[in-house]
Amino acid sequence: MCGDIMLKISDIVGYPIVCNDQKKFRGEVKDAVLDLKNCTLTGLIIDYGSLIHHTRVIPFNSIYKINRNNIMVRFKKNILEIKNMDLNKYFIKKNEKILGCEVIEDNGKLLGFIQDIIFEEKSGNILGLVLTNGMIDDIFNGIQILPINNSIIFEKEKIVILRDTKNDILKNIGGLKKLLELEH
Q1: Among residues 146, 137, 131, which one has the least CA distance to residue 101?
Q2: Domains in the chain, ordered, with CATH?
Q3: Where is the PRC-barrel domain (predicted)?
């Protein structure tokens, strides 16, 4: 995985969509569609239009390139009506439905809430979940990142991890505690 670019979904929300075959603006990213069973980003939900807004979806495999300030789709025909994507499947969810979900250990202990999702730019593979315990805790202690592995169970309203997986969580990324060297 060396050299792969990792992005957070929050990084690309608001990015304009440009069709390579027309070189013109086609909307902006509003949300992402995730396949939790296969741990992949399956598409981007976009919105376009000035007076009348249209919601469409771009399958992830139709994305040509993610640049620093836009997302390129090779052909306009790759932008589909959202009704063509089944968002009612159990494991297919909009990112907005996952944000704020509880992450708990299998013994019921709360570890945090999902704040963001990290994915690999080229493949769309979900690499990790950014966890929060609230803004004050994040400022003081920093955020936590839960790498995706086989010990994660996606349930309807929460995510359960096996106790052993707790050791895989990357803790205290940023935060005043680390900055002020209060942590040993």
Answers
A1: 131
A2: 6-94 (3.90.50.10), 98-179 (2.30.30.240)
A3: 6-77, 97-163
Bridge partner list, 143 = 173
Count the helix, strand and coil residues of the chain and give each as a percent rounded to the nearest 5: 20, 45, 35
How many beta carbons lie within 10 A of that of residue 36, not counting itself? 19
Model pLDDT for residues 4-50, shown as the tens digit of each residue: 789 999 999 999 999 888 777 778 999 999 998 889 999 999 988 76
Distance CA 147, CA 138 (A): 18
Measured in whole angstroms, how far is the alpha carbon of residue 35 from the centre of its chain? 11
- pTM (whole model) above 0.85: no
Instruction: List C-alpha distances in Å: 51 to 47, 48, 54, 108.
Output: 12, 9, 10, 48
